[in-house]
Amino acid sequence: MMPKRESDATSLTSWSATQSPLHRPVYYVTSPVHSHHDAIRISFSHSSPGASPVHPYYDPYHHQRYSSSPIHHYRESNARLSSSWRKLPTHHHGPSESDDDNARGSMGCYVTWFVLAFVLLFTLFSLILWGASLSYKPQVIVKDVVFRNYDLHAGTDITGVPTNMISINSTVRIAFRNPATFFGVQASSTPLEIYYSEFKVASGHMEEFYLSRESRRVVVVAVAGVHVPLYGGGSSLRSRADGGGAPAVVPLELSFTVRARAHVLGHLVKVKFYHRVRCSVTLREDRLGKPLTLAKACEYRDR
After folding, report:
1. CA–CA distance from 207 to each of 136, 197, 210, 218, 232 (Å)?
2. What spatial distance separates the first Cα and last Cα of the chain, rounded to whole Å?
3. What would the mean pLDDT of 252-278 be, rounded to a whole number?
4. pLDDT of 14 over the 50 cut
5. What is the three-class DSSP state of 209?
């Protein structure tokens, strides 16, 4: 047997240390794709493949597949990643039916809010106009009355009952003024009635008319009564025609209600005014045909 040389022992020791699994260098290659191949242990030996013993963790298939080069593994990983991307469902970016429904719903919501806001603003504006118009009440003044005829005589009513009969013919002048600056009024009135005590002895009707903004008008109304029976209420009345006595003085009362209607905003905003007028009038037989001023003899009430 040939003695071992020192060089041979050194080579053997070096070779054994290199081939030992405990001292073999280990490399880790991380794949770009998160799969079960994320961490693959690849062992590289400093010796030739023919001289290397079979490692306990050696797999021929994996060795053949991944031992060629890391670049080859990186390309295969990219190929798998591209394949996985191609398998993802493609999203349709064009308008779908749900998008159209959402758009229509949003448009309907906007329209609804617009209509509600418009109605609210219009209602508020109408209330402001209505409140402002209340301070522009038409003014009514009874200027005077002229009694043109007065007659008291005995007679019978339609049923044949004997009683005193009275006839009065008069005219009443009424002044109207519309102080409003942004609307006109349509004025009318209930029948003008003249009462003696509780008996209506004369009446007249005023025609309806229009009064433009910031305008004035004087209306003359004929108020008359012919052969009005007084029954027992006219026993104290007399007439100058009866025996040439003193001229008659007859206390009367004139009453009526003026109605004014204003269209502030067309037919949408309307305002109505009511003025009740009561005037104390004294008929003097010796002043027939002369105007009797009623500036301080009338009472005006709004209702």
Report:
1. 23, 27, 10, 12, 34
2. 148
3. 90
4. no
5. strand
Comparing CA positions, the residue from 275, 264, 269 lying closest to residue 187 is 275
Contacts (Cβ under 8 Å, ≥6 apart) of 63 = none
Q: Among candidates 267, 239, 65, 75, which has minimal Cα distance to 164?
A: 239
Q: What is the DSSP letter of 232?
A: G
Distance separating alpha carbons of residues 136 and 123, to the nearest angstrom:
21
What is the pTM assigned to this prediction?
Answer: 0.60
User: Which one-letter DSSP state was computed for residue 234?
Assistant: G
Taking only the tens place, the pLDDT of each residue in 48-70 is 444 444 444 445 444 444 444 54
Residue 164 buriedness (CB in 10 A; 0-12 / 13-18 / 19+): buried
* CB of 174 closer than 8 Å to CB of 219: yes
- CA angle 119/120/122 to nearest 5° reads 65
